[in-house]
């Protein structure tokens, strides 16, 4: 399916004169750039006054790029509506949680739910699609830019109206809303949907259900906006559609990508946070299973703006990133941006070339990444990412629940990253899977930090267990209902009947001196926790110290051919990390997880397969070099040399592509 | 006067179905709960639409509780007006210092000074009082809930109008206001009362007098609201009325309780801050002298909300709290809350039973507290708290002054807690006394952190001195006039003529390297300080280093049979604490303070007396165990055993009740 | 030109009754106060109702002061308009960046650009000037008080209108604005000037050009206000006009003082920051070259307010400050304030006498300063500050650029202070010079932290180089165009053609591990940096480590008789400071800088000259004492003793006045 590997950059021909654009296209071709992304902020260029639309300059640039062998991802420019849209129309602006309307001059200042915005966006998108959608070289579309990166939930009057309609659709009657949200708690009770406030300023806390539902409403609305706009494009263009997203934005990525054609992401993790980079690859691969994803934006050197300053990548890191991405399922690896901004607020941001047209600090690394791309391309397109046997549930809905119920300190991203890093360290190949992902092919499933488990997810996961899988649930999972309330039947609600254990207590372990004992070691426990008394299950981890010593924080019970494991608390610190890794290896072994590589820290294996062979793309990501143990003799696909089984050394940021015959034992 | 000890919990029958309520009442009775508090947030349940009032469900619950042997404290529900009150009425909302109206969905969003609010509150309170006020089992009333816990001064238009009226009443003419506030300083001068702003946003600082007066205005208004509502209840009910208050709220507690019948408080101090818990007991006992107070809310285990997370008490601490409270003058000890909230924003808060009806993490501690209550009850009701000989002045007006004049760092609560802990450590039994408290019975009075001393307080305290008392004044006391200005007659204003010393300089000691030398030791001095030159007085503590070495920070002068002591500066750090404790013991000895127990740190003695005996209730509060030196042979009232004079060991969180014959020597 | 040295205090006769005023004048005269500043906040006293103006009380006070031998600096009271100005007129108020109008009750709440404000200010100023401007004793005027100390850019509707007019004047057409600001970046493009927003709240960052231009607009407008008001005064008074300014305020001081008559400043640096104090002297001397400046406000002991608390000066420091100021070019040294405020928000601020009329904690130091003033006066008035050979460029426009482009951490004041301290440590006498200052007389010029170099400054500085000067440029200098964009011709724009080096890369060095090697040592490099490849120039400092090792951060090239030196990066930490000092000494020697004293740290030499002799005023500023090496035998002007060449010891805060014959070698 994959035909080539794309190496690209964001390009803003509208910002530079024709001669600069011509030189840039020439230099791009020399550099090895084979795709550019254009158009995501140029609305005012093609519609300088309301209704005066002319997209022909874009057609011209696309044609010239195509002539130079460079394809185009075309963006809809709706992140930055022109001044004619907002001037004199405060009612069209995004309103933040303090009730402040945010104005023109930056990005995302328009409320994307306002009907006039929807209409104006539709008009400009239709023109772009109709006139440019079938041009040679246009290989894809990107909707807007980084939805909800700078803003979260809008509090404008139009959103209030839509919120009330959304509530009515969800609950039918306001009495049902009152009952499900428990609004009698503080006499919040509503007599009509139009009385339900947006979660604006109050003296103390808003109802948890209201807060979480407003987040879900907002997530649904932005996805609906994407759906609407994608539908317009499809009327005129066959090129696949994506959005450049991120786990950092206020989005439900699973929902967003449901009706889009491929997944893509922006990432500016520094080299010190290479695990965050890998997490993105292991997650975005799974939003559109079987379909390559794109790194749509990453810096060739450093992020930066007039209000921030990033650290340039160490030399060599960029190529390691590129190889890791391609090996883990990316089709494209693109920079933001080609030419340094000469104006605006991102002047200091790293670029491939400077504002005066000379190679930037990252340029040599871009060339190195291009050489790597060329070297691995035949091997990547001849294979596909191997099926992981380990899955970690990823849920942006869970992120919404934890944003509401943070206990003052819980950050979804940090929690999920911590869990991911534990799996990464075991060397087991892994997927981060959205809630709705099929569990076919997996052997071990971990579902941490998902306060509400949908009945569908419980049902499918239990079926996975019945069929031999091991499902580890927790911490902080299944402790809340769909409406963000506490279950009143049992601590873990609908899951508990299957657990062979009873939730006895729930409380935060921090500061209580409680230790967990499991897998031959002790570690402090942390976070809001669920404490169990086992019945049918057995305890795999007991509490010592604290207010409930002797009870269990880790239980397992056989169900069918598999096991259901409850992890009620979060082991903390270095010992906690070690304990979690032991737990993962223990259950990985029990589940017969075979796709696992023995590497030193900072070196990864991205396994790929074809009908005939299995490929290990080995990359050192931490710049310290390391080694990997090859299970068999293999072939270095780039040098052609035979490589013996056993320890293979890799230098700082070095990559290797080693092939083995397709081996059933690794599947 | 005390007939029984109450052990209770907040109960929300309106949130659960009838079957759950029935089961809860049964379980309460088994657990030993003999009182519940109901109704404080249920306005929307009994008046779902404006004017449609039905309080009969409450009558039914009260009846069923009574049948089960459980009494009721009935609350007025005014902290959470229903949606019909605020929807479409932004003018009725609380407005914060930034001018932002705070909306429905949480608590305290109504401006309690709005005439419509006063009217609607009167209607619902009258109905509750009329229909329920004489029901069997109703033993008390609580007005509203935690006044001014989440909000401080309201800035709404109605409050502006009332502010102007309050100013006119206080000052008569605007010229007088101008003169007393010194408004010429920055051309603030007003030509009419209605020009005087509320202390909203300004480029720099508001006039100190304006700020402090607005705080006092606000404190007066909320007390007036309480008075009004209490008057309504009294027309229909004889049950005594309280409010669940705290030193943390924006209130003048002395004023608030003036027209209420008994004092009560909410406290969520963690076990590490047991001294804060004891401070509450030693203070709230004195808002209504001779009348027991209530701990109206405390957690059976931990506080918590969706935005915060508390640490559960160590096992054993809860019973220690209960015993300490009863011994120090409490009649009731009540939990928030009986059953964990299933919805809203306080889902993680500790409760006696979980949302699914099982014993919570604190349940065993509740049972232990109940056993303790039963064990001590006969001994507590046979005695009364012993008269303390040491008093510390407590003033919420002073809190208002220091909120205005914080010097960027002064926190009234922390300062007062520090002073209290010094007295606690000496083992002297003590009262924290509101400004207006009679000084009858005391021997040593310490008045720290009261920037303005009223002439009444000066007069009564000097009379106390004349009669043999020792009065320690400062730090930060008597440095400002009633109008929050600097005295222009002398540094300490009206007090200085009696001091036998002259205020030479005032400045902040921090960072100057100044040491204080007193009681055979040196300690660094801190905070805004008053430096003295003695005349008639003698210096008990001299400065070394800094810009004014050789002068005095601690003076004493004989007046009548007693002494007036000025403490001009705050000794800091461990040495400073030691110096303050030496000072207190020194003057305690001079004043012949005999009611003092020799205990290890973390173990306290609460002395109680009857006509025939003196009781020492000894409690270990820090969980480390300790000992107390018994001055005489005594009787263990619980075991009946004789206990020798000398050292008595107590285990972690252990309590003992030791009786001695009534001994004049301890009075 | 200098006839006497003034020693003064701010005086508020309007706040005290006549008897207090009379006593204060008497005590001032005794204390040695020979000038007071009056009137800057008394608008409401002289115009209590709109149009009812009576300034005669001021005339009376001025007369009485004059009779006591005390001169007067008369202030215009526009920082605090009376209540009649703002009450009922929210449209006249200052509006902050969040869109919040700031109200009456403090200072600077009026928008100084509002036409009604301009009119009312003109009326009161004219009356003051007309009636008091020629009174005996009136020796100067101060406009307003601390412009833009508490507020920065106003966002009111009137300012919006003026902003649009200012833009139109600056750019002519909106197309030109769009082009120069690069507004196509995020579709910001404007179709008319009246669409250009003020930099209010947006979801992400505003365009850099818009932000910087709004700052420059605001700086221009407040200077225009000063110009207008000075013009009125000049119609009636010959006394020179100043404003009490500071580098901490949101002002362009060079522009502000352009049409004023002398420079003055307020400073409250603590003794620990004596270098900040000296920086002020070395800068403000140069706003009106050849004309003495004034320290218009400094505390006799400590700063303070109800919201802050300062540390009193160590005894002795005040006289050191006074001597340093006079020696470095001050004519006046004045305290804020004479008598402690009895009311308002600055009650705790240090004053010469207390609110109750007694000497304050600083009083003895004031007397010591007065003795010093008398001792040095004849020697100061017989000489003038020596011409410095070293200049550091100071630019408040650069401050505006860095406020816009802070990279999240850059603070202009801290950066400039750091640079200044490096020069101070070398012992070279120095000027901080505004951008437009003539370079006549200098040998070494350092221009750090000026993102945009005007073509005029480049031209004049290159001419300075041609004539033999050495010009060190950077760090962070010449990296932006006049419109706050990135140059597109070369990294350093118009300067680069003269540099003999090419800007290869720009990036932030922090966190990259890059070291700079120069002058025989290594130091870590920091901040946004410019990396060079030399052509004609030679590299004086190379990079090691990081992403661009081997390139240059420090280049020099001969131009005419001098050298152009580029410093592309900021050496950091102790090693960085040492490296910078070595660089300065190296180029100081090359440039033949002879005016340099060899002192221990914390001891300074302020050189002064006359036709016949050269004076070294030596002051120990750090309270630790120290020494200075005298190049020749000299005369102690105070004792008359002969002092040998070589090491001269000075005690803590001691000062000496040593005269040498006028020595060409030092010129």
Automatic annotation (TrEMBL), chains A, B, C:
Domain Beta-galactosidase C-terminal positions: 603-658
Record-linked Gene3D superfamilies: 3.40.50.880, Glycosidases (3.20.20.80)
Top EC class for this record: hydrolase
Annotated EC: 3.2.1.23
Location of the Beta-galactosidase trimerisation domain: 388-584
Spans traversing the lipid bilayer: none
Domain Glycoside hydrolase family 42 N-terminal: 11-373
Pfam families given in the database record: Glyco_hydro_42, Glyco_hydro_42C, Glyco_hydro_42M
Superkingdom per UniProt: Bacteria
Catalytic activity line of the entry: Hydrolysis of terminal non-reducing beta-D-galactose residues in beta-D-galactosides
UniProt keyword terms in alphabetical order: Glycosidase, Hydrolase, Metal-binding, Zinc
UniProt-listed InterPro entries: Beta_galactosidase_C, Beta_galactosidase_Trimer, Class_I_gatase-like, GH, Glyco_hydro_42, Glyco_hydro_42_N
Family: Belongs to the glycosyl hydrolase 42 family.
Protein name: Beta-galactosidase
Gene (UniProt): yesZ
């Amino acid at each position: 399916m994959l035909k080539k590997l794309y190496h690209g950059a964001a390009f803003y021909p509208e910002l530079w004169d024709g001669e600069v654009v011509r030189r840039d296209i020439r230099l791009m071709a020399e550099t090895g750039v084979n795709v550019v992304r254009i158009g995501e902020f140029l609305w005012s260029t093609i519609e300088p006054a309301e209704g005066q639309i002319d997209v022909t300059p874009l057609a011209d640039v696309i044609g010239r790029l195509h002539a130079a062998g460079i394809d185009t991802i075309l963006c809809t420019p709706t992140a930055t509506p022109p001044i004619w849209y907002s001037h004199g129309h405060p009612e069209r602006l995004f309103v933040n949680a303090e009730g402040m309307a945010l104005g023109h001059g930056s990005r995302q200042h328009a409320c994307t739910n306002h009907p006039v915005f929807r209409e104006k966006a539709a008009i400009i998108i239709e023109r772009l699609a109709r006139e440019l959608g079938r041009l040679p070289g246009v290989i894809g579309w990107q909707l807007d830019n980084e939805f909800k990166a700078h803003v979260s939930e809008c509090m404008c009057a139009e959103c209030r109206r839509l919120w009330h309609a959304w509530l009515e659709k969800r609950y039918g009657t306001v009495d049902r809303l009152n009952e499900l949200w428990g609004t009698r708690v503080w006499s919040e009770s509503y007599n009509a949907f139009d009385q339900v406030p947006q979660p604006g300023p109050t003296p103390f806390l808003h109802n948890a259900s209201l807060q979480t539902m407003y987040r879900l409403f907002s997530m649904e609305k932005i996805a609906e906006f994407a759906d609407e706009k994608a539908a317009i494009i499809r009327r005129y263009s066959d090129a696949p559609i994506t959005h450049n997203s991120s786990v950092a934005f206020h989005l439900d990525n699973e929902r967003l990508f449901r009706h889009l054609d491929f997944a893509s992401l922006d990432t500016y993790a520094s080299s010190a946070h290479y695990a965050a980079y890998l997490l993105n690859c292991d997650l975005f691969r799974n939003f559109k299973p079987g379909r390559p994803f794109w790194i749509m934006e990453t810096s060739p050197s450093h992020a930066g703006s007039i209000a921030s300053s990033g650290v340039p990548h160490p030399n060599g890191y960029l190529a390691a990133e590129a190889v890791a991405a391609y090996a883990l399922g990316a089709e494209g690896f693109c920079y933001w941006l080609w030419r340094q901004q000469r104006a605006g607020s991102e002047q200091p941001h790293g670029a491939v070339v400077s504002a005066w047209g000379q190679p930037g600090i990252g340029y040599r690394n871009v060339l190195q990444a291009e050489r790597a791309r060329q070297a691995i391309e035949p091997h990547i397109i001849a294979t596909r990412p191997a099926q992981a046997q380990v899955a970690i549930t990823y849920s942006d809905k869970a992120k919404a629940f934890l944003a509401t119920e943070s206990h003052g300190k819980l950050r979804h991203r940090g929690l999920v990253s911590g869990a991911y890093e534990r799996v990464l360290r075991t060397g087991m190949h892994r997927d981060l899977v959205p809630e709705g992902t099929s569990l076919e092919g997996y052997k071990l499933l971990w579902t941490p930090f998902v306060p509400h488990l949908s009945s569908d997810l419980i049902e499918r996961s239990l079926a996975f267990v019945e069929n031999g899988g091991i499902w580890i649930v927790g911490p902080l999972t299944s402790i809340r209902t769909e409406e963000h309330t506490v279950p009143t039947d049992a601590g873990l609600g609908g899951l508990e009947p299957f657990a062979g254990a009873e939730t006895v207590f729930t409380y935060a372990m921090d500061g209580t001196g409680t230790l967990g004992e499991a897998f031959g070691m002790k570690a402090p426990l942390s976070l809001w926790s669920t404490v169990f008394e086992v019945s049918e299950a057995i305890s795999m981890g007991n509490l010592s110290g604290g207010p409930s010593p002797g009870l269990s924080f880790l239980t397992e019970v056989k169900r069918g051919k598999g096991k259901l494991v409850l992890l009620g608390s979060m082991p903390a610190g270095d010992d906690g990390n070690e304990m979690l890794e032991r737990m993962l290896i223990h259950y990985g072994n029990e589940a017969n997880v075979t796709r696992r590589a023995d590497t030193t820290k900072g070196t990864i294996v991205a396994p790929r397969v074809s009908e005939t062979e299995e490929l290990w793309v080995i990359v050192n990501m931490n710049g310290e070099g390391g080694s990997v143990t090859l299970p068999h003799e293999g072939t270095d696909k780039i040098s052609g040399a035979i490589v013996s089984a056993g320890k293979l050394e890799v230098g700082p940021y070095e990559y290797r592509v080693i092939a083995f015959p397709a081996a059933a034992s690794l599947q």
